[in-house]
Amino acid sequence: MSEELRGNGESTAFVPGHVTSFFAPYPDDDPERAGSRGAGLTLTDGVEVTVRAAEDDAPPVTLDGDPIAMPPVEAVLDGLGVADRARVVAESDLPLGTGFGVSGAMTLGTALAANDRFGRKRSANDLVTLAHRAEVEAGTGLGDVVAQARGGVPIRLDPGAPAHGRLDGVPATRRVEYVTFGDLSTAEVLAGDTDPLVAAGDAALTRLVDRPTLPTLVAESRRFARDAGLLTDRVREAVDAVVDAGGEASMVMLGETVFALDSGLTDAGFDAEACRTCDAGAHVTG
């Protein structure tokens, strides 16, 4: 198959970070149907992924300059038929493993950039499906990829890749602050009893759909974290401090991380990072 290589020898994609506020996991034998229902925020802090030709003395995948093993990224390259020819260089505003969807961003960004770099001529939905499938099979995410592809404040009404999933959104944009205390294992949480997650996530989704606003989303996220038994002591203390100061905050799923609207964390005395909700979804930048 012929390829149309970009003249500059590389392609770059930007993928927004994704804060999941609540979710209900829906596994399936078909990874394209598997996924989650729920809602969250995409962020202007995200991941920039550059794909260029492989180099003999360079690691195949790096994140912020360090070599990293990333099975879903490798699966995407394999799915596009370029695993032996591509090098992936990712730079992130966000820490890995703390609930910002960095793995999903790297995977989706790789799909978009590699498709462009090597002229694979795949459609947007095909690339999102490829990335979603890779994340599900690797056990690193269920809903980040489809949310990051959409951008904004996505509501995942039905699980799965584009042919199966259904999305809506909260029509709003806002300043967002966040502070991270540590990481949590998505795989470990999903390996346990997920019935409480499904019950709490579906209930939160119903209430958000009835009143699709950012304050509702954050309030339902707090209720979900409590009902699903996910709150750690440090997260609970930070969330309570923001609420006591008159702000809106909750836990990021899944990470020992707190997010707040506007200046909620700063007002509560935390040294927080700040960005905004990202109006655009994942896209090739050059």
Automatic annotation (TrEMBL):
It catalyses: (R)-pantoate + ATP = (R)-4-phosphopantoate + ADP + H(+). Gene3D superfamilies: 3.30.230.10. Keywords: ATP-binding, Coenzyme A biosynthesis, Kinase, Nucleotide-binding, Transferase. Residues 80-152 form the GHMP kinase N-terminal domain. Its EC number is 2.7.1.169. One of its GO terms (molecular function) is ATP binding. InterPro entries: GHMP_kinase_N_dom, PoK, Ribosomal_Su5_D2-typ_SF, Ribsml_uS5_D2-typ_fold_subgr. Coiled coil: none annotated. Pfam families: GHMP_kinases_N. Signal peptide: none annotated. Pathway: Cofactor biosynthesis; coenzyme A biosynthesis. It comes from the Archaea. One of its GO terms (biological process) is coenzyme A biosynthetic process. Belongs to the GHMP kinase family. PoK subfamily. Phosphorylates (R)-pantoate to form (R)-4-phosphopantoate in the CoA biosynthesis pathway. HAMAP family: Pantoate_kinase. This is Pantoate kinase. It comes from Haloplanus rubicundus.
